Protein: Histidine acid phosphatase
Organism: Colletotrichum graminicola
Amino acid sequence: FSNGQALNNMIREPKSHFWDWYSPYYPVPSEIDPAVPAGCKVTFVQVLSRHASRYPKSPEMERAKALLARVRTEVSGRVRPEPSNRETLEILMSNDLIPHEFEKLTPFGKKEAIDSGRSFFKRYQDLAAHNDPFMRSIDEDRVIETASLWKEGFDQSKGYGKTTRGMEIIPTTKGFNNSLHYGGCPAFDRTVSKIHTSTAMQWMNRNFEQIIARMNRQLPGVYFAPADIQRLMRLCPTNTVINGIESKVCNLFTTEEFRDTEYGNTIGQYYSWGPGNPLGNPATFPLNRKIYADFSRSNVLVSIYSAMGLFDGARPLSKTQMTPLAESGGFTMSRLIPFGSR
C-alpha cells in the first residue's frame, strides 16, 4: 500500500470483502458519480453478470472433509490443546461445517440475483420501462437460475405479474463458439490456465508461515500445511453465503490474513485469465439492441475485463510483494468477481 491510511481503510472493511471470488456482492468504492450527467440520457445498457452465491463444489468439500476428519482423529487421540485454544478446537469439531448441497444457488444467492434485477431496473428505469432485455446465459443450472431470478426482480420492479420472456441458452459443448464460457481455446487450457494454481500457491507458501505456526501451536500434533490453511479459510465464505450470516469458522483468521490470501489468488487470476495472460486479445461487440443482459462465470468475466482493456494502464501485479490497489487499477478478485458481480 502507498500509505498507512490506505492500509487502515482496507483493514476496517469487513472480512467478506477479502474472500476473492467467494465474496458476496458489494458495491466497490468509486470516485465516479453513478448518476447520469446532466443533459445526457442512457440509450444503451450492457450488463455482464456472474452467477450469484452458490454452494461449494463437491471435490473441494471432500478435501475439506478429509482435513477435518484428520484433525478430529489427532485431537481425540493425543492432542490436548491449551484451554485458551479451546475455541479453535470447538469450531473445527463442529458437525455443520460441510454443506450437503453442491454448486447450486444458496438461499442467499437467490436473493442476490433478484435484488440485482431490481437494482438494474431502478438505475436504468427510463430505458428499461420501455425495453425488455435480450438475455443470454451459458447452459449451467446456477447461471440459468441466476438469470431467471434476475429477470424476476427486473419484472417485479417493472410491474409485471410474472416473468414475461425467456432467454437464449448458449451450449458449452466442445466445438461450440461461446464467448460466455471458457474451454474454447485448447492451447489456453493446456498451458496458461495452469499458471493460476502454481502462482497462487507460491504466494501462499511464503505468506502462510505465521498462520501455520499459530494453528500448529493451538492444535499441536496436527501439523497444518499451506493447502490445509487455504481449505479451512474457504469454509468461512462457503458457509457464510448460504444464509448471509458470517460463519464461526471465520473467527479462526484475521481480516488481514484473508486480505493476504486473496492477493495470492488475485495474482493467480491476473497471470492466467487476466491482463498478464499472454494469449489475451481485445475483441469488439456488435450492438443492435437497447439492453443486453449476459450471465456467465468468474474466469470468463476476468478475461472479458482484460479484453476490454480496463487495466491497460495499470501496473502489473508483483508475485512477491502486494501491489497497492491504487497502482493495480483496483485489480483484486473480491472487487472484480464476487458472487453476482456485474
Notes: The chain has one domain: 4-336.
